[in-house]
Specification:
mainly alpha; 54% helix; two-stranded antiparallel ribbon
Length: 233
């Protein structure tokens, strides 16, 4: 055999091995008799980074609606080559987050405490770091403190109602996503940091400005996240 033939044979074997590997990975849920959404090669159930329409959250929302419409209590997804469990039934979710939370503490999310400190939150951290942060935050959400937060949330809600009323009187369209995002920003700023953001009157206020950046997803961000998920074990 010539060198070229060896190279071609090596490529064929490599591609065949990759194909068989993904075929085996993508049979994970079927081997466990769990309903799942058919994945696409390499990406799983994700969209192509250069043709994103729904985004990561939209993809998960579509999957949830699909399982729910089928009357399933849970289902399976694939984030690239990683099998991902999606609970649907509220009672099951409650049990996972309370009685059995020690078995579901790791979510496989990206964390870079040095370069992106905001990524090191309770939803992303794993193992001992997750337990430590949860222990610190648990006293914050006692029934007494939640009652105090209620007044702050109600005040933020009044600002939201005032904003919607103004737009309605001026016959302007409502951007529900932006309205809910502003309310969330104001609530977090008020309850967690004691800051009156009032994002409805100050849309470029610091909390809202950087909160918007956290969820923005352009091509380069999508490609970066794709690379991160691909490289994680």
């Amino acid at each position: 055999m010539t060198v070229l033939q060896y190279v071609i044979a090596g490529l064929v074997l490599s591609l065949s091995a990759i194909y068989l590997y993904f075929k085996w990975i993508y049979s994970y849920w079927s081997r466990r008799n769990v309903s799942y959404i058919t994945p696409r090669f390499l990406l799983g159930n994700l969209e192509y980074p250069w043709a994103m329409k729904r985004g990561f959250v939209g993809t998960l929302a579509d999957a949830y609606k699909e399982f729910k419409s089928q009357g399933k209590r849970f289902g399976g997804l694939f984030i690239l080559h990683k099998p991902t469990f999606m609970p649907v039934d509220p009672d099951l979710i409650k049990r996972m987050m309370t009685v059995d939370f020690q078995h579901f503490m790791n979510h496989g999310n990206f964390v870079d405490e040095e370069m992106e400190p905001l990524s090191a939150n309770l939803l992303n951290l794993e193992d001992e770091k997750w337990k430590t942060l949860r222990a610190k935050l648990t006293p914050t959400f006692t029934s007494g403190k939640m009652k105090v937060m209620y007044d702050e949330m109600k005040a933020c809600g009044s600002q939201m109602v005032e904003y919607i009323t103004t737009l309605n009187s001026e016959r302007k369209p409502l951007d529900i996503k932006e309205i809910v995002s502003c309310y969330s920003t104001d609530t977090i700023g008020s309850c967690a940091f004691g800051v009156d953001c009032n994002s409805f009157k100050n849309p470029n206020e610091g909390f809202r400005k950087y909160g918007r950046k956290v969820i923005e997803m352009d091509f380069w961000t999508a490609l970066r996240m794709f690379t991160i998920f691909s490289s994680r074990k």
